[in-house]
Amino acid sequence: MSDLLEELDDWLADNWDADLTVGEWWERLGLAGWAHPSLPSEAYGKGVSRTDALAVSARLAERGALGPPAGLGMALAAPTIAKHGTPEQVEELVRRIVTGQRAWCQLFSEPGAGSDLAGLATRAVRDGDEWVVNGQKVWTSGGHIADMGMLVARTNPEAPKHQGITWFAVDMHQDGAVDVRPLREMTGRALFNEVFLSDARVPDSWVIGGANNGWAVANSTLTFERQGLSAGGQASAALALPGTVVNDVAKRAGDFVRPRGPGSGGAGTMVAGSEKLFVELARANGTLGDPTVRQQLMKLHTLNAIARYMNLRTKAERARGRELPGAGNLGKLAMSEVVRTSRDLGLAILGPLGTLHAYDAEERKALDEATGVPKSAYVTEMALFAQAPPIYGGTDEIQRNIVGERVLGLPKEPSDERTKPWSELPRNG
Fold it and tell me: 210, 229, 235, 357: which one has the fewest Cβ atoms less than 10 Å from its Cβ?
């Protein structure tokens, strides 16, 4: 890794310029392979491990350079297209991801097909060189600022439900055909959306992995998602956002390089650094001596340490040319336990103050003045947000089923869903 970081240092010395626009800087970073170094070299990466890629991201921050574009395009779409797409699709789609030109969202879950993703009902029908898509998606993170979407739709309803699905890249800017509506959460934020597709059109050249092979492609996407959601390997959220909607790409890159305080990346990001915050709060209000609080602090520390060791073990296995079965699923389960422990511990430290929450900047200012504990807002938002990670990216129950069936070899429940046509199955059957 030292050689990799030395190479990066030399490259930064020649290329980093705070007066570049974000778009100009990301163009340099992405085309040189430093934006997403874990991608293959033929897909604008360097073919390094995920752990080494995280080290590259950390080094960029250490050297005072703006990090790569964040979001689902980098985390999910780029590695999926690199794995299943054609060279032409990599050039057209992945290049625009690693250079921050396009922001992406994930159009997987549906009102009647959440945990049972293969039961999805959104239809795509071939029309010459295009596909016409109709249906509804839900829990679409960042859909309101996305240029592109990762869409799975049913293209053969007469095939068994896992066999008649296709993975598409879809343009989100289709007036009247793609309608994005925000869903406000109990945190007060609206990170998720529902999306209605009404005769939306997708060129056949944006079918990734071949028609009716979308289940295999979607499983790759979900694997990348679970790896990204695993405990022990979280990276800080970016300050600049990719894509044409927010248009950070036109702003000065140096203006986005600044120290980040606790909670500045939102509740989900803040969980990764919650130990230090909890100790600080407990010391300030006298609960650090409470045996229960101390025990929970050590539990949280232990969970995070185990997650880091798991990442190291996974890296060691890959260095030997092997994969650790179920590592992504176990990491996702570990993150669920971390956020639940963080929720319970944070509220225990705050005590009655944990019943108060502010939903916008004005309310936070008033709450800070009334309580004198400005960081309480981070803890209460984390507590409200903690219900989400055990659900999104595949529920804890789904992760346990995958580990049981695919890793431990336990038998599946009896079902004819893999042989009977989807059109003959009861909904969610």
Answer: 210
